[in-house]
Design a protein that fits this description.
heterodimer; A: 236 residues; mainly alpha; three-stranded parallel beta sheet; 11 helices; 54% helix; B: 157 residues; alpha+beta; five-stranded antiparallel beta sheet; globular
Amino acid sequence: MEARLRKLTKELRVADRTIFSGAVFEDEKWAAYRDADVFVLPSQNENFGNTAAEAAAVGTPVIVTENCGVAPLLADGGRVIAHEEEALRKALGELLQNEPMRERLGRSAMAAAGTIGWEGPVQEAEALYRKLAENSKGKKIALCGVSVGQRKTYCVQARLEGGECVPCGLPAGMVYSAGWEYSVRQYLNGFSDAIVPVPATPEQKVDAILNWMRSGPPRAVAANPDACRKGIPKRR
Amino acid sequence: MNYKQLLSVCGTATNAFLNLARSSDLNVRRLLLLTPERTTKHVVAEVLLDGKWAIVDPTYRLVMKDKQGHLLTRRDLQNPAMFAEATSVIPNYPAVYNYTTFAHVRIAKLPLQGLHLRVALDKVYPGWDEAVDWSLLLERESFFVLCLFIAGSVFFW
């Protein structure tokens, strides 16, 4: 990939203005973020986009595509663009030629980055699990594969069961967390009952799941109004 | 990010679909669409419907079908015309999400990649990654470590 990009810089006659830094870490990384006038994350698809959040945290305005998970959080700190060459060219030109705008966006970026943390997504996930569990009346509920970080997800699952978070890395912890994983997965497995009609053909099941995904989780809760008030341990 | 945003990302949307589908007794597996450099560009699901592994793209909530409504497999979708037909219902569906290169298991995720495991397994047992549902082992790293530990104990005992 780097060889291809180097070749491209030569073809476009910008080789003398392009730096291939390779991976940089710690102080060098933060210095690079601070030194940049604009940080660009032109990803075709990005689960989150930590680098954009880090750049914003030091007050560098960012340009990210709408396909980056972090985009809605940093919209005030730069430009959120379509994954298109022209959109990127336009946004870059706009920011590079307007220093006051960069300074203003940089301040907003820093403020926006300050609000990003694990607490929000984890609390949101917890609230959803709790709500789903309350509405599942003796049924199990499904873990919807929302990965907010392996350990954080463990915490959500453990709290739901009334257990405790297990530190990862130790063999005993591994065995214990595998046990938890299995039991929680079993416990959660039946939530699909709230989404998928029974009986249904396999194709109807697929459609039902996709329909649920189109509508988002509230639909599933609404589809299973038999509320259950037991079995949900208090948060520790 | 909230749930709506997470369900718009291919990895998490496919996870959600796979978990819910498995809970509904469907046979499903993850399919990674790879770049020529073998990095993952998109993730979709395969569902065993009518005896064939039909492609579902949970990110776009799309079951891949031709105009006659026939379910399409990854082999069908390697045909550019069929791919275009199946994805035409989604405006601006990325054409790069084609089925030229794919894999069921991302070996690089294992702590054994230095052994060139995929190459070796492909030689010894072609089609190994389709023969077994590896998802539980590979998605749940603690399970993998536990199974490795048990296998090691049995072997050395």
